[in-house]
Amino acid sequence: VLTMGVQETIDDMDAEPGNVVVAGSLRRDEGGLERFLASLAEVFVRGVDVNWASLFKGSAAQQVKLPTYAFQRERYWLEASMGAGDATSIGQSSADHPLLGAAVGLADDQGWLFTGRLSLQTHPWLADHAVMDTVLLPGTAFVELATRAAGQVGCGRIEELILEAPLLIPDKGGVQVQVSVESPDESGRWPISIYSRLEQASDDGLWEEETWTRHATGVLTQGTTAESFDAQVWPPKGADTIDIDGLYDGLAEKGFDYGPAFQGLKLAWRRGDEVFAEVCLDQAQEGDAGSFGLHPALLDAALHTMALSAEEDQGARLPFSWNGVSLYATGASYLRVRLAPAGQ
Question: What is the CATH number of the domain that holds 98?
Answer without folding.
Answer: 3.10.129.110
